[in-house]
Amino acid sequence: MNELVFIGLGLYDEKDISIRGLEELKEADTVFAEFYTSLMPRLSISNLEKMIEKEVQVISRRTLEEEEGQVIFEAAKKGKATFLVQGDPMIATTHVDLLISAKKRGIRTRVIHSASAVSAVRGISGLQNYKFGKAVTVPFSDQGFVSETPYNVIRENKKMGLHTMCYLDIKAEEQRYLTVKEALQTLLEIEKQKKEQIITTKTLVVGVARAGSPEPAVKAGYIEEIMNHNFGAPPHTLIIPGKLHFMEAEALITLADAREEIRRMAE
User: Of 23, 32, 83, 95, whose CB neighbour count within 10 A is largest?
Assistant: First the structure.
């Protein structure tokens, strides 16, 4: 049977994988995995290999993007291939492209979903999921170019009273992960140029670190104070709230240590 099964690993370590996902891996002929689109803080590939009694072949960004995943398709044509992805398999567009390409090649595909940073970060913040607008990634700004896209997305979401979830850039090959502080510095730098008062030191934000782990960090406050907060190890995520419901304000005070005064922002 030619088959490719996409399997989500979850958010923290190899124990986050579902029982269904584990069963699929044990039955697989080939196991592939990529680790450049996200970060699982305590994932041990060797422990995972012991669990499934198989070798895990880690593939690079180049294999997926430049070579279009050919090695995966070749394995799927010979038997049952599995593709491990951190978080949920279909959150990254790279994996959606791979799924489409597999189907066009006549390869049977299935998806085993898992926990995602999208639901985990939003849930742990206490903000209501249906009030989030378009999400955006804040990139590293060390190449001399600062993208205005995050600022523009935040501005448009704010116009509609919606929250913005900001993914923070990673360079897995270099083991570099953008922090909440660095992301805020980038947004403030753009504000200096745009001067639209979208992001100021008095803007309420929420920083989240290691969502899905036993010890996540969640802190809400004005940028001037969040800039100095120690969120610890990555991965980090940033939320820019829009209009707050009174229950959301209560959640940020109770769950994210926000100031009592933010109740006045709520509707």
Answer: 83
Residue extent(s) of CATH 3.30.950.10 domains in the chain? 117-265
CATH superfamily of 117-265: Tetrapyrrole methylase, C-terminal domain (3.30.950.10)
- The pLDDT-based confidence of 177 (bands split at 50, 70, 90) is very high
Three-class SS of residue 19? helix
3-class DSSP assignment, residue 227: coil
For residue range 113-170, what is the model confidence (pLDDT) as tens digits? 999 999 999 999 999 999 999 999 999 987 678 899 999 999 999 999 999 999 999 9
The mean pLDDT value for 186-211 works out to: 97
Residue ranges of the chain that CATH labels 3.40.1010.10: 3-112
Domain 3-112 CATH superfamily:
Tetrapyrrole methylase, N-terminal domain (3.40.1010.10)
DSSP result, 99-145 = HHHHHHTT-EEEEE----HHHHHHHHHT--GGGB---EEE---TTS-
